[in-house]
Amino acid sequence: MHTNSARSPRANLKPKLIIADDHRMVAEGVQHILDEDFELLDIVADGDALVDAVQRLQPDLVVADINMPRCNGMDALKRLRHAGFDTRFVFLTMHMEPALAVAALRAGARGYILKNSAGEDLRNAAQQVMAGATYVTPALGARYISGQMTDMRNLTSKQLQVLRLVGEGLRSKQIALQLGLSVRTVEAHKYTMMQVLGVHSTLELVRRAQDLGLLF
Prior knowledge:
Elements: E1 16-20, H1 24-34, E2 39-44, H2 47-57, E3 61-64, H3 73-82, E4 88-93, H4 98-107, E5 111-114, H5 118-130, E6 135-136, H6 138-146, H7 157-167, H8 172-179, H9 183-197, H10 202-211
Parallel strand pairs: 1-2, 1-3, 3-4, 4-5, 5-6
Helix pairs in contact: 2-3, 4-9, 7-9, 8-9, 9-10
C-alpha cells in the first residue's frame, strides 16, 4: 500500500501538490490559490499523465478536473486506488450534479468543488482535506448532508429525457437537435449518468437504466 500520510522528512515542509487540468489558465489559477500552502510538483493535462505523475512523485494532494483527454479524472483516481495509492484527491469541476459528487466520493475523492466558486472554496477545501476531512462545495453540501444524493436513480428531468432518447437509439447529435441542447451538453449528461450508474459505455447505460426501471 502506498501512502503519503507519514513522512518524517517532510514534517516541517509544505505538502506536495499535483494539478491536473487540460486548461492551462485554470491550472495556473489553482497554483496561485494554493501556492502559499503547497509545493507544486507538476501540472499535467490528461488522466494518463496524472496517473504517471502520482506514481512517480507521490504527492500529498491532487487537484484535478473530471473532464480531461485520454483518461478522465474519475478513471485516473480509480486506477490509482486499484494500484494501492491513497493520495488525497480534490475534484475541481464545472459539473453541478449532486449525484456525480457522490460518485466521485465513492470512488475515493476527498473533495468536490465547483469551478465557479474555486476562489472561495479551494484553499479551505485543501486545508480540510489535508486535515483528514471531506469537503463538498457549499452549493451542493446541503443536499449531500441531507442524504438526497444517496439515491443513484435520482437523475434530473433533463438527464432522464436524454436517457430515454439514448434508449430509443438516437445519437448525440439527434438528441441535441430534438432537445435544443448542444452536443457537448448531451455528452456531459451521458457521462454523468454513466458515472452515477456505474457503467462505462452507452450500451451498458441503457441496460442498467432498463434494470432500474428508468426506461419504459
